[in-house]
Amino acid sequence: MGGLRRLTCALILGAAPAAAQVADLRSTTQFRVCADPANAPMSVRDGSGFENKLAEAFGEWLGLPVTYTWFPSGAGFIAKTLRAGECDVVMGYAQGDELVQNTNHYYTSVYGIVTRKDSSLATVDRLTDPALKNNDLGVVAGTPPATIMARAGLAKDMRGVDLFVDRRVEDPVGDLIGGVKDGSLDAAVLWGPLAGPRVKADPDLQFTPLLRETAGPRMFYRITMGVRLPEQEWKRELNSLIRRHQDQINAILRDAGVPLVDDYGKGMLP
Q1: Which segment of the chain is annotated as a signal peptide (predicted)?
Q2: Cβ contacts of 166 within 8 Å, gap of 6 or more
Q3: Please, what's the b/e burial string for 203-236 (b: 16 or more CB within 10 A of its CB; e: otherwise)?
């Protein structure tokens, strides 16, 4: 979702070792992934996340077994995993961050509104819609939609949660979606890859992508993999796999319930 994870990961801080120390660290015998062990529905230690499934696919295409270095998202994630040479790729990283070198993006997704299907807000598709006023609205603090909501005069209606918590014991996104389900919240504004898979199987809930939002900041983000800054050959190898297997990548994401949009955030992919 990036923000949201790896929107959120793009906020992670950490000092980088010198380029010469990391230039030749990539394993040639394993597909070594840096991941949060409790970032459902993205990465989960038991392998059930959609990023886990994508990692398995890339490992198969490379002919390498997948191994993980687990570390909670937050300050120090990149420094203590990728840059320390413990692993070679971060799945699901927002395009444009300077802490890593981005591959080409392999999907684009969007923020959206989670509501009950029988809610009076079920047709809302813009954060500037006056219908949102005087409702209890869940949102992740510091994310792009929170900025738009505050500017739209919804500050008093916002019920914020912090995404940077120990998700082994806390589940802020799950709590927001649960609040919509039980009626303690009227809606929640969330990053599609975090919300879509959770809403997909629930007959009472829906996710409406914010494709018509005209106020900034933008609501869609292109998602890449992150590799170490000097590793150009590794990036090119992953880019080639993305290009050749885009249909399979899309199928894995769709099956998980991740909302996929075009590269410019104008429409949903078929």
Answers
A1: 1-20
A2: 38, 72
A3: eebbbbbbbebeeeeebbbbbbbbbbbbbeebbe
Question: For residue range 93-150, what is the model confidence (pLDDT) as tens digits?
Answer: 988 878 899 999 999 999 999 999 999 999 999 999 999 999 999 999 999 999 999 9
Contact partners, residue 71, CB within 8 Å, separation at least 6 = 34, 35, 36, 37, 77, 80, 81
Closest by Cα among 167, 195, 194, 169 to 181? 195
CATH number of 9-107+220-256: 3.40.190.10
State both tokens at 176: 């927001």
Q: Which CATH number, 3.40.190.10, 3.30.70.141, 3.40.640.10, 3.20.20.70, labels domain 110-209?
A: 3.40.190.10
Each domain of the chain, given as residue ranges in start order, spans 9-107+220-256, 110-209
Please, where are the H alpha helices in 63-109? Answer: 77-80
What does the block give as tokens for 13?
A: 């801080």
Distance between CA atoms of residues 94 and 265, nearest Å? 15
Peptide bond into 217 cis (omega under 30): yes
CB of 115 within 8 A of CB of 82? no
